[in-house]
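Q: Hi! Curious about what Endoglucanase looks like structurally. Here's the sequence.
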Amino acid sequence: MAATTVRFCLALLILVASMASMAAWKMPSAVAGRRRSPKYADALRKCLLFYEGQRSGRLPSTQRLTWRKDSGLKDGQDAGVDLVGGYYDAGDNVKFGFPLAFTGTVLAWSIVEFSADMGPELPHAHEALRWVTDYLLKATDQPNRVFVQSGDPYSDHSCWQRPEDMDTPRSSFQVNDTHPGSEVAGETAAALAAASIAFRSSDPAYADTLLSRAKTVYDFANKYQGSYAVSIGQWVCPFYCDYGGYEDELVWGAAWLDRAANSSNYTKHISHGMQQIRRQKKLRVNGYDWQFSWENKDAGNYILLLLMQKTDDDYSTYAQNFACSLLPQSPTRNTEYTPGGLMYKAPAANMQAVTALSFLLLVYGRHLNNVNGSVTCGDSKFPPSALIDLARSQVDYILGHNPLRMSYMVGYGKKFPQRIHHRAASVPSVDQHPQHLWCKDGTPYYVTDAPNPNVLVGAIVGGPNDRSDNFLDSRPWSNQSEPCTYINAPFVGLSAYFSKHG
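A: Let's find out. The predicted structure is below.
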């Protein structure tokens, strides 16, 4: 009880200090002139470096975050398969397949759209993506079966333990013909298909392997339809439970396969799926709460299909509605913004919505530029630059242009979160503490207010989770201080573009 009281008092002091800092900060005027651009190229480098800190498996000799060591080397053994590799999704030590696949899809999309802007970081982007796809190839090696998780989340979450010492059960969970999981299988197919495009010029043989597997996995997802939230629900819910239905992932997978294979074989799946989604979710021309995340592909589907130059006018209509729902000056906007200018879409890990939606705004804005288009919202018309500028404003906020003058990317700038909710970062590394640390041995490092001993460079945390730009740099406040692979994935494309066009 005493420890809880101390943490509450510390949190309250931090909150008061944050509010005092904001009182002295004013939102910049829209006519005040262009501010100095952050170093987007440095942000891109660090954004990709973060993924090396999330690696599971045997680390290569090129590993740059050397405080991380090999881990999870027996993953899959309980099921007689090799599931070594992949990423830990966030600050825990479980490999959740649904957000992992989404991370792969968006990393691939970032490369497909912005490889020309990545410069010397393109090989690192390919490396980050390949760490996902190599694992997904292992997870989909058997017909009509996708391994979707490594690790018992309940046991894992009861420990504060670095991944190198894990002694909790590394249980393997799968979806198959009797326990379907169309959302996670559809997303896995999308990741493999999108990655095949990203690797097409640099490694065509690998791209062929990815595309072939994507087709097989999609056929399984479509033939054996059902939600993994039902078939293996207690192991994936509430952690990464799909509450919005799997139809959007089936469209998502089909769209990426259509684009990767340059084939119309998946057109009927796209058309049928979009009809179901419109009917079930009652998508409206105006007023819909557009999302894009590991759980919801609605906005992403429309933007992707528009880029593919499909002839259905609804794609452009709904894409325009998406932009109108976000643009601050739009008469049909339904998105909140904090006084500091941050999109507010989620009460927990809000940055995952910020980076994902900003990525779509940038991709859509570039498309409109290419076709000399614009966005009409009610009686107002907006040029493509309005979408791109909004995306830039969110990137700038994350990198420190905010009331707290804090970068929400660890290791970027002079002021950034020091106490992120992350086991590997907060517990002394094997180099510092060679002795094995058991399940509860890491607890003192969780409750202390001392900064983390290891800097997880490039990690973007959940960020402010209220409407007033408040942030607590505190491990127990995981909804603000925990980084996730799928927060960084869209930021790869964003920072790459603005590094050349900022």
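A: A fun detail: Strands lie at 95-96, 145-150, 172-176, 336-337, 343-344, 375-377, 380-382.
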